[in-house]
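Please, structure for the following, as tokens.
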Amino acid sequence: MKNIVILISGGGSNMAAIVRCARREDWRRSPGAQVAAVISNRADAGGLAIAREQGIACEVVDHRGYASREAFDAELARAIDRHRPALVVLAGFMRILTPGFVQRYPGRLLNIHPSLLPAFPGLHTHQRAIDMGCKFAGATVHQVTPELDHGPILEQAVVPVLPQDTADTLAARVLTQEHLIYPRAIAALLAVL
């Protein structure tokens, strides 16, 4: 069985979507994977309660307790490595990771970003898409590289930008697509690892 470790900072809706898929019998057979642990940098992350309800091991590595990003990343890596992950999945993990951390999991560190990368890396993606007059927005699953919101694209979903959209309404529609494409991209990558 291939282990997945999911990193979160908040409510964990993408994590919950991945856990739901990982619990299906067909998913457990192929790609033969399970969510082994959920780790957060915030003790108050709502997703931890969801993971605990599912019987998934949870841990908090609070970034505020470390003098540097490197020190935090080193402790985070130790927590992750205890679960021997095939994949490390960022699901709303709101920390920029150091190049050394990223290089520890080459090709095995995934992220989902709420835009059609390479457009709109970083924050406030939905408002930026609306402000630029985009007709389409979406989400991208990609492998993480040291450069923020770059790396090989594994899957994308496209959502129309409607004339009455606000950043919140567009974000809600994009999120429904994230819940579909992230588990699918994870399963496809695990099948070849």
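The longest strand covers residues 33-40. DSSP finds seven helices and seven strands in the chain.
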